[in-house]
């Protein structure tokens, strides 16, 4: 009798173990399928990217659709000197100055050293460009700190002509910084959405940004669906506390906007910080009521201005 009971217990235990193994196998299979599906989905989303990299390589270039865009995408007239001060990099034109300055707000885990050629390009157009290696910039605190350090980092900086350039998370950081310190211009390349910003405790609003603001994104899947959707850009545009321009770069995605927006980013700072008449023609044309080159460029769409 005892043997029969023992046999029954063993048999039931084996059955239970088999069910457990089957259950665990099913769960693992679901996790694997879900992971493979997620990876495949993200690869499909990222497939719109031309460069495939948040960083920017030396000698980079991108297609342009206007004469002025091509001009400002090219190298400027200044020789450039690059120096490090701890984790801060300064790319600056040679000469006596004074010079306007542009402070860079990094994208997530994208230190300035990974896109230094962009800073060098801006410097060739007459800007002292300052940035650091901060991997998380959404609050804008490091940007404000860099702005406060500008006289120490380069005595030739004209503090009345300082702009902020932010990409992705750095777009949120640029807006947050401009809401808390006085600057003359702001440029954001595919700024992170409010949903992303809220979930990371660095949400932002442009209502406190009184400086002229240029908001751009791309039409790629990553920006359109995940990082910087057009509806978010419109919200920021409509709530801006000062003059604003909004536009979308076609044929690019989130990882490409540093290169593909470069010509008009440079023109923006040349217009606002340096009173460059050619740069002005990019945005407002030859008369206050006219449209500039940006509005007629076939590589850009959804261009609008307010507050000018």
Secondary structure layout plus pairing:
Elements: H1 2-46, H2 67-73, E1 80-85, E2 88-93, E3 99-105, H3 116-124, E4 128-131, H4 141-153, E5 157-167, H5 169-178, E6 185-189, H6 194-199, E7 213-218, H7 221-227, H8 230-239, E8 244-249, H9 257-260, H10 262-274, H11 277-283, H12 293-296, E9 300-306
Parallel strand pairs: 3-4, 3-5, 5-6, 6-7, 7-8
Antiparallel strand pairs: 1-2, 2-4, 8-9
General form: globular
Order of helices and strands: HHEEEHEHEHEHEHHEHHHHE
Count all strands and give the number.
9
How does the helix and strand content classify structurally? alpha/beta
| Proportion in β-strands | 15-25%
**Number of helical stretches of at least 4 residues:** 12
Radius of gyration: 25 Å
Q: Share of helix among residues?
A: 40-55%
As laid out across the biggest beta sheet, the strand order is 1-2-4-3-5-6-7-8-9
Q: Low-confidence parts lasting 5 or more residues at pLDDT below 50?
A: 28-48
- Biggest beta sheet attributes: 9 strands, mixed
Mean pLDDT: 88
Spatial separation of the terminal alpha carbons: 96 Å
Architecture overview:
This protein is α/β, with parallel strands linked by helices and 308 residues long. 44% of the residues lie in helices and 19% in strands. A hairpin with a 2-residue loop joins β1 (80-85) and β2. α2 (67-73) packs across α10 (262-274) and α10 (262-274) crosses α11. The longest helix is centred in the N-terminal third of the chain and has 45 residues, at 2-46. The chain is globular, with a radius of gyration of 25 Å.
């Amino acid at each position: 009798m005892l043997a029969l009971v023992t046999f029954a217990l063993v048999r039931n235990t084996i059955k239970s173990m088999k069910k457990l193994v089957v259950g665990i196998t099913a769960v693992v299979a679901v996790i694997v399928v879900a992971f493979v599906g997620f990876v495949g989905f993200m690869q499909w989303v990222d497939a719109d990217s031309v460069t495939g990299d948040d960083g920017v390589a030396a000698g980079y270039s991108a297609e342009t659709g206007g004469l002025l865009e091509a001009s400002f995408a090219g190298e400027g007239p200044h020789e450039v000197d690059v120096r490090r001060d701890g984790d801060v990099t300064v790319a600056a034109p040679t000469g006596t100055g004074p010079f306007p300055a542009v402070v860079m707000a990094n994208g997530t885990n994208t230190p300035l050293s990974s896109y230094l050629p962009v800073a060098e390009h801006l410097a060739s157009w007459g800007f002292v460009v300052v940035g650091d290696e901060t991997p998380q910039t959404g609050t804008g605190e490091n940007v404000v700190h860099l702005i406060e350090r500008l006289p120490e980092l380069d005595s030739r900086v004209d503090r009345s002509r300082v702009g902020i350039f932010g990409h992705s998370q750095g777009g949120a950081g640029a807006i947050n910084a401009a809401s808390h310190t006085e600057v003359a211009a702001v440029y954001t390349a595919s700024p992170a959405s409010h949903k992303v910003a809220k979930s990371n405790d660095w949400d932002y609003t442009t209502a406190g940004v009184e400086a002229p603001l240029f908001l751009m994104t791309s039409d790629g899947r990553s920006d359109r669906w995940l990082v910087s959707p057009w509806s978010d850009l419109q919200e920021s545009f409509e709530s801006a506390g000062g003059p604003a321009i909004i536009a979308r770069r076609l044929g690019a995605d989130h990882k490409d906007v540093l290169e593909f927006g470069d010509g008009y980013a440079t023109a923006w700072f040349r217009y606002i910080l340096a009173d460059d008449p050619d740069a002005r023609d990019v945005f407002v044309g030859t008369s206050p009521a006219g449209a500039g080159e940006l509005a007629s460029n076939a590589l850009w769409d959804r261009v609008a201005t307010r507050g000018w």
